[in-house]
Structures are given as structure tokens and as C-alpha cells.
Amino acid sequence: MQERLLENWLISVNEKSFQIPFCQLLTGEGYQVVHMSRHGPFESGKDILAIDPDGIPCAFQLKGSAGKISQKEWAKYVDQAVRLVEIPIVHPSIDEKKPRKVFFVTNGELDEEVRLEISDRNREWERRGLPPLVTIVKGELLSRFLQLHDNLWPKELVAYKELLELYLEDGSGYLDKPKFAKFLQNILQITDKTNKAEQVRSLSSLALIAQYAMHSFVEKKNYVAVIESWIIYLASMISFVTKYDIQEKYWKTNFNLALDATDQAFLDLIDELQERPFLVEGNPMIDSPFYYGRITWLAGLISAYALWKKSADKSWSEEKAYSFVFTNQKNIRLWGEAAFPQLCSTSWFLRSCGIEHRASGLIDALARGICSINLEPNVNGLADPYHGLGEVTINNAGLSETLQKENFKGRSYSLESVVHLLTRWGWRGVLEELWPKITKIDFVEYRIDVSWEFCLWHTETGKLTVRQPKFPQSWRELQEEASKSDLAYVPKILIDNPTVLLLFLVVYPHRATKDVIKFLDDSFVN
């Protein structure tokens, strides 16, 4: 069954979606991946550059194929293959004087005529002192993937069933985030905790298993679900390396590859948003209740992505991201407390674009919305951050028996963070106006005890605190509270990468504590 699932996945992926998995395979085998192509005109036929375990520079060209590469199809690739072999590897991390290896990789097979032509060319290249072109085809790839998964593949029937269920998902709906996160967490528990080498290798294996599990979403071009899947993988990885104190040099490549995959999914998402004038899914009549929540969700994700790219590259153009967020501001809604990180992300992005009045106005509206909904008679209040958009929307339509029984009135997980943001931004007048209402709503927070558990979807070891706002409240005391934060329970990797932390919160909204929000406000505003 394992081999059949892997083979089915391998033959169904295209060149673009195959690149990251192949890099993860190389990393798991001990290669150091130093470059991954964006398929620009200056790549000289080299999609991936890496250094093998013996220190030899390697260049790989990847081609997707549904079957065998015929002579006619090979003719389209031969010029790239020639450049791959004949043009030296140029990269700061690679010594050009060292002999190199070059590989043509396909998830299909090669016709006999193609094999013979490559053999003839290899003899000529070797005569000229150039490296031969080594071919890697489906059979070898399958064997190498299976070998990498030797110790991490789901062996328990329940875990294997979960993988199959995820693999066979329709792919067009919402990602079941708790299920996906729990599945990856359970997979990592199989790892031999006494074997450091296996722990390191398991990160590559886990990335590949995550890609098998998200395959249906990739096939349906459900880019939001793909982005969320990669963020959940990153969260699982961060939890694991934090718990077992694995050095950065052993996990950094996997971390960067996952970010590259996330980056590509965002680029695809932004292109899709540019091409679609109406962001309706399926039947407009049925989709109507989901529409505004989806826009809010997308605005939060796109804003977080824009903040990430702007921090990494000052020359990065924010035009497409800004156009989407600015155009859709009127459609942003507080659909539940899980929308809080989405709204913060949008606000910080608008502020980074110099539109401070709209950025602050969004948080002002957020405060008023929480107070209004959580104090309104004859309603159950704003759903807490443990309930996603689909569940909340179905409940609002009167179709959820479970959620309708919960009462969220008089309490909020995000209001204290909103108060601190408004305080930090000097909106004293707004807080004075709203304070009589704010004091009728309890501040609720669930805080993790140990940092490695912060990235888990579910944990039992934290502490739930509920407290009432003071009345009267000293402004100076409020300013002092809003300026302090304790991040001892947050993994250092996330503190060192605030843009990743923001993406994490958009996917894991129930981890948005007041300390984390203040830290991110410092990162993006000051």
C-alpha cells in the first residue's frame, strides 16, 4: 500500500510541484541544497544546485512526465541538458574548481532512443573532459523516497488511515487544520528520540509526507489550503526541534524549503486573485454567507505575506497585495475571534503602507465590534478563536447544533490585546468611550507552559486565566501594561522570525496571546 500511494503521487505531480519534494529528498539524504530555480532565463538548465555528502557540487534539471519521455519530447529539453552539462555551476557556495555532477531527473521514464542518445552524448562529453549526464527516473525516485521513509512512515493502522483520508480529500474545501496538525504530530512521535541523525532525517521525511497529505489541495489549486498546510508543517517542525534542542544547521534547509513552497503558493494565490473579478465559490446563493469571511481571511493572509516579503526584500513590490487589500476593505468583517489575527495582519500592512488612519480605524472597529456582539441581548456572542470560518458561518445559518449550545457572551480572548494596541497607538479617547462596555467583558487567555507546545494545535498543559478589566482604570498603568511582554513560552525560532510568527497566528488564531500581539506590533510598527 505504501509503495502504491507513493507511486500514484509521484506520477501525478508536475515539474513545478515536484521541485520542493525532490529538494526535501536530497536534504534527507545528506545533501546541502544551496539553490532552487524560479525557472528564469539565466538558470543554464540548472533547477537545483546542491552539495552531496562527499562535498561534490551537483546540478539537477527536473522534468515532469505522465509516462515516457519520447524522442520528440526530449528534443524540447536537449538544449537545456546541453547547458546543464557544459556551463559550469556558478554560485557563491560552490567551488567552481571542483569536479561536478549533473543529473536529469524525471518522474516518468525514458524511451530507449532517448537513453541511447544520452549515452552517445555522454561519451562525447567525457572525451571533452565534461561530466556525464546521469539520469534519475521514476523507479529510482520511488526507491529513494521509500528508503527515506523507512523509519517514519505511518505503521499504525489509524495513522495510515488518516494519511489516506487526507490524500483522498476532495481538495476544494477547507483544510481540516486540527486533523492535519494532529496527523503530523503523531508521525513525529514515531521518531527514535535517542538517534539524532534519525531526528534530522525525519524532518525531510515529514515534509514529504505532508506533501502527500496535501496532494488533493495542490491538484485543485486550492492555494489557501496549501499555504495553511505548509504553515502547519513549519509549526510541527518548530515544535520538534525546540523540544529536542536540535541545532539550526540541521533544520534550516527544511525550514527554508517550506518557506519557499509557501512563497510559491502565495504567488499563485495572488495571480489567481488578479485574474478573478469575483471571489465567489460555487453557487453564489449558497456561497453568500461565506463571502465576507473569506475576503477577511484572504486579506489577512495576503497582508502577512506582504509584510514578510517587504521585510526580506526592500525592493519587493507591494502593488498587487495593496491593490487587493485596499479594494476589499469594505468587505472585511469580524466573523469570529479567529478573525482577530487576520484583522491585525491587515492593519499592520496598511500601516506599513502609510495609511495609518485606516489601520487604526480597523482596530477601533474591532474593539467596538467585540463590545457590541458580546453584550448584545438574545445572541450567544462572538465565537471564540477555536472555531473556524466554516463552523461559524454554518452556525450563523442555524445549521449547527453543537456551536449553538455554546455561550460566548461576556468574555473575549482578543479584547485585552485590542485594548493594548489602542493604548500603544494613543487612542485614549476611544478607550474612554468604550471602557464602560469593556468592563462588562472578561479578558480570557490560554497560555502555554512550555515553548515547544506553543506550536501544537492542541495541548492540555497550559493555563486558562479569566479576569475582569479594572474600573476605574489608570491610563498610565494601562500604558505600562501595554508596553511589557513576556515571550518565555514562545519558541525562539518564531521570535527570530516575526513574519513567520504572524503567518502562524493567522493559521493558529487561538495562539494569539496579548504578549505575542504586542511583540508583533513592535516588529511591524516601531
Write a concise keyword list for the protein shown above.
8% strand, Trna Endonuclease, Chain: A, domain 1, alpha/beta, 10 strands, 526 residues, 3-stranded mixed sheet, single chain
| Strand residues, percent | 5-15%
**Spatial gap, N to C terminus:** 54 Å
Weakly predicted, low-confidence segments:
none
In which range does the helix fraction lie? 55-70%
Number of helices: 23
Strand order of the largest sheet: 1-2-3-5-7
Assembly state of the chains shown = single chain
* Overall radius of gyration: 25 Å
Number of strands: 10
Please tell me the overall pLDDT: 90
Coarse shape: elongated
Major sheet details: 5 strands, mixed
Total number of domains: 3
Structural class by sheet pairing and helices: alpha/beta
What's the helix and strand layout?
Layout lengths: L1 H11 L2 H14 L3 E5 L11 E4 L5 E7 L4 E2 L1 H16 L14 E6 L2 E2 L1 H16 L5 E4 L1 H11 L8 H11 L9 H12 L7 H18 L1 H5 L3 H21 L4 H28 L8 H29 L6 H9 L12 H13 L3 H20 L13 H8 L4 H4 L6 E2 L2 H10 L3 H11 L3 E6 L15 E5 L7 H9 L8 H5 L1 H10 L6 H11 L2
Parallel strand pairs: 3-5, 4-6, 5-7, 8-9
Antiparallel strand pairs: 1-2, 2-3, 9-10
Characterise this structure:
The chain is α/β, with parallel strands linked by helices and 526 residues long. It has three domains: 1-148, Trna Endonuclease, Chain: A, domain 1 (3-Layer(aba) Sandwich); 151-277; 281-524, no CATH class. The chain has helices at residues 2-12, 15-28, 71-86, 112-127, 138-148, 157-167, 177-188, 196-213, 215-219, 223-243, 248-275, 284-312, 319-327, 340-352, 356-375, 389-396, 401-404, 415-424, 428-438, 475-483, 492-496, 498-507, 514-524, and strands spanning 32-36, 48-51, 57-63, 68-69, 101-106, 109-110, 133-136, 411-412, 442-447, 463-467. The strands form three sheets. It has a five-stranded mixed beta sheet, with helices on both faces. β2 (48-51) and β3 (57-63) form a beta hairpin. The protein is elongated.
